Amino acid sequence: VLCGNSGEDVDWLGDKFDLDLSLVARLGGHSAPRTHRGKERFPGMTITYALIQMLEKVAEKTDRARIITKARAHKLLTNPSSGACVGLIYEKGGKDSKEYGPVILASGGFGADFTQDSLLAQYRPDLMHLPTTNGEHCTGDGIKMGEAIGGKSI
């Protein structure tokens, strides 16, 4: 079991976003079929597209969300007294800007970072010599930002 309530989560995604996640596939590195996907897109994209479309609607109709493209978040901001995350710093066009509010880290894994100070080297050095199917963007930046303010990785 990867997640205690994963079945309920898949049902929620299907109901809330009207997604087809009826196929369960075995993907690279899996010992059994466990990736829920739709018939139309590769794994993850069905969910990702639905979430992006919902976020775009929220950003268009309210001030509860902003979408900033072609930017790279690089530091989380914390409340000095509580330590709670209150925003982030991002770089766009060579300039740093701050954004305050809730932060959701959804940056993927770290399987494509083969540098010596990478999370891959730290947690799974035995895999450093193997190729990856992860995109080159999977360098653990979000995980590193979370850990930098006290977040724990398991």
Nutshell version of this structure?
This protein is α+β, with helices and mostly antiparallel strands.
List the helices and strands and how they pair.
Elements: H1 6-17, E1 23-25, E2 35-37, H2 45-61, E3 72-78, E4 85-92, E5 95-100, H3 119-123, H4 141-148
Antiparallel strand pairs: 1-2, 3-4, 4-5
Which secondary-structure class do the elements indicate? alpha+beta
Number of H/I helices: 4
- What's the N-to-C terminus distance? 15 Å
Shape: globular
Q: How do the helices and strands follow one another from N- to C-terminus?
A: HEEHEEEHH
Q: Let me know the number of strands.
A: 5
Q: Strand share of the residues?
A: 15-25%
Q: Which residue ranges are poorly predicted, with pLDDT under 50 across at least 5 consecutive positions?
A: none
Whole-angstrom Rg: 18 Å
Strand order of the largest sheet: 3-4-5
